[in-house]
Design goal:
Elements lengths: L6 H15 L39 H4 L3 E6 L4 E2 L2 E2 H7 L3 E7 L17 E2 L6 E4 L9 H5 L3 E5 L10 H15 L2 E5 L35 H10 L11 E4 L23 H10 L19 E4 L8 E3 L18 E5 L6 H6 L5 H9 L18 H5 L3 H8 L3 H6 L4 H9 L7
Parallel strand pairs: 1-4, 1-7, 4-6, 7-8, 8-9
Antiparallel strand pairs: 2-3, 5-6, 10-12, 11-12
Helix pairs in contact: 5-6
């Protein structure tokens, strides 16, 4: 049993709660990034800023009382500016187990690193990794909780692994008849629904669901789709309770207050990620091993083709062994690319990968994964074997996009059934 609150603890709780319920009147803190002013610069600001599900404490605090809580979180899981676990514990919520996805509970592990189980030193609560051998909570772990909370910031791309973690934990909840409470957050790329639909034989850890590259859903909406489309084993259903984002629709500009992972460390990188991540299946670096990942593109053999140059280095906690480590890479600088162009087109930017393939002098090595240290083949990232073949054959963007139908159109129609926000 936890000790009775001291006067100091009670004061802290009141301050935390006040910060949460009044957050809609405060300016959303931005990722530290001089280029972030370029994002949404032509957009009209909404009358009220979005208020995340987590920040609406009064909507769910009473619901948590008297329950043993499991919580799936990372560094983006905050109330105001305070980690949600710290805030809820201070408010008297009985959190008995913390679960962490890729990059870990505190978000410090590098891309693809396995994360070990531990005990959170601040709260003394067991912290279980769900990125490694264990993909979902065990039945024994689920037996020790009454309710699972999911509160993680997503960025709207199929290969961003948090939607996979969502599905695994929904499966564990469905198997044990436990409810999941989702504290929803905006999708910064919520306006974007585009790309080929994942083919069944290309399912992997970077693509589990038959969706396009950019799915255009919040976590809450995606959870409803998993249930509604019968994507859990045996078409099981997970009982859901969703605290919706206030003042939000899919075209609402949203600057993330906390970087969602080590290599998405600026708002510019978050917005470019759905368009650039397919380069992970090529010999071209996306800036891993620099402090500007997913905003630059380049390779050593592109010297003389492009003037911009950068040199990847080993950076602990970001990229210890980046592609082209300690080599000068020549390519494209997208740090000041006008993101409003993407919002207006509502399409994936294909010309960068098409142009760099055309410029690359050793085309047989462009998609050669034996030369790459990156996350997956181009086929798994694109979700189809056709994309690589089309690039090599010199297909036009129009021809490539036409091949995504009718699957993309069918997905867009299906998606409408699960929208919480216009």
């Amino acid at each position: 049993m936890r000790p009775i609150f001291t006067l100091l603890s009670l004061t802290l709780c009141i301050c935390l709660f006040s910060n949460c319920v009044n957050s809609s009147s405060q300016k959303t803190p931005a990722i530290t990034d001089s280029d972030s002013l370029n994002v949404h610069k032509n957009a009209i600001a909404p009358a009220k800023l979005p208020v995340t599900g987590a920040d609406q404490v009064s909507e769910y605090l009473d619901y948590l009382k008297g329950k043993k809580i499991g919580i799936l979180v990372n560094q983006t899981s905050i109330i105001g500016k305070t980690p949600i676990v710290d805030s809820l514990v201070a408010l008297g919520v009985n959190i008995v187990m913390i679960f962490g996805p890729e990059h870990g509970f505190r978000g410090t592990a590098s891309n693809g690193d396995k994360v070990s189980d531990s005990v959170d030193p601040k709260t003394g609560i067991p912290a279980i990794s769900l990125y490694g051998k264990q993909k979902k909570p065990t039945k024994e772990q689920m037996a020790g909780i009454d309710l699972m909370i999911f509160d993680i910031q997503d960025v709207g791309a199929r290969f961003y692994t948090y939607i996979n973690t969502l599905g695994h934990v929904m499966e564990a909840c469905a198997e044990t008849n436990k409810e999941m409470l989702i504290l929803d957050r905006p999708n910064p790329n919520g306006f974007l629904v585009d790309g080929p639909i994942l083919e069944d034989h290309l399912r992997s850890g970077i693509g589990m669901y038959k969706i396009p590259i950019a799915h255009g859903l919040t976590i809450g909406e995606f959870a409803q789709m998993i249930n509604g489309e019968g994507w859990l084993p045996g078409k099981m259903q997970c009982k859901l309770k969703i605290i919706k984002v206030a003042n939000y629709n899919h075209k609402t500009p949203y600057t993330l207050p906390v970087m969602p992972s080590p290599n998405l460390n600026t708002q510019q990188s978050v917005m470019l990620y759905p368009h650039i991540c397919m380069f992970e299946g090529t010999i071209v670096s996306q800036g891993r091993g620099t402090y500007m990942p997913f905003t630059v593109l380049g390779a050593p053999l592109l010297k003389g083709k492009f003037d911009f140059v950068f040199t990847p280095k080993s950076i602990k906690g970001m990229s210890e062994t980046p592609l082209h480590q300690d080599q000068e890479c020549y390519g494209i600088d997208l740090r000041k690319f006008d993101i409003s162009k993407l919002e207006k087109s509502e399409k994936l930017q294909l010309n960068w990968i098409m142009d760099m393939y055309k410029a690359y002098p050793d085309k047989a090595k462009f998609f050669d994964m034996s030369q790459s240290k990156q996350m997956g083949s181009i086929d798994k990232l694109a979700g189809t074997e056709n994309f690589k073949k089309q690039i090599i054959a010199g297909a036009s963007e129009e021809e490539i996009r036409k091949s995504w139908e009718p699957g993309l159109g069918q997905y867009k129609d299906m998606r409408k059934k699960y929208l919480i926000y216009p």
